[in-house]
Amino acid sequence: MSNSSTTLQLRQQQMMAALLTGNPAITDHITGDHNLNAQQRLSIYQSGYRLRLREVIDNDHPVLGSYLGDDLFEQMVDGYIAAIPSKFRSLRHYCDPLPDYLQRDDFFSQHPHIAELARFERCLLSSFDAPDRDTASVETLQQIAAEKWPQMTLRFHPSLQLFTSDTNAVEIWQALKAEQAPPEPLQRLTCWVAWRNRERLTEFRSVDSLERTLLSGFLEGDNFSSAAELTAALVSEESAANELLTVLLHWLQLGWISQLSVQREQPDLQLT
């Protein structure tokens, strides 16, 4: 590597250090004039960097910002930017660690619904930004012979997100989004599904214990036979088949499923 390339790389590293940690080493290599000295010129970049990151947090988490109010929002922003420097080429992912940061922070961790509120907004963003993929239909299911259903597995649309919370964070989000007073924070297990519908709009709805169990199982690779056993354990065996079919048809109608496939049966081993 030539000396000029080495020098350029060093200056780039020094500039990043100035932006991320405030290290002033790059100041000796900035030319000032009668209007602005070197430190003033550097501070423009440092302020611009922080303002851009603040803008990203504000745009990604408008409801969280509304809930916190100006002072607490600034406290969160200052702490997050100091603790989590940007490491992504795209700022779209800069706030991905925000819920974990809020869970660890000495102040915000005292209010777990705040981290859950941030995590729910990340969930909605992930659904909206997910890649496109065709969805299966009821007709797709009808094309699979009934005797092959026990080996059938599901692949969900990439936008589908299963959100489980220990608080009423989603109800708080809904109230704020509707410009209403949010309810008091509560510790309560809730489960929601977010997805992007066929009109490319993000939706979400709550799911009961049966749907949550089935979704978790299918996401882990369960087939229809295993899902039937899970259903029978939660409802009566007599109604399990109808319950499972009703859930599956509803998921197909909502566009949650991108593919139905049948696992090949493994041949029995022959010992000779």
TrEMBL record:
InterPro entries: DUF2063, DUF2063_N_sf
Gene3D superfamilies hit by this protein: DUF2063
UniProtKB keywords: DNA-binding
Every Putative DNA-binding domain range: 12-102
Keyword DNA-binding set for record: yes
GO molecular function terms noted in the UniProt entry: DNA binding
Name the UniProt record assigns to this protein: DNA-binding domain-containing protein
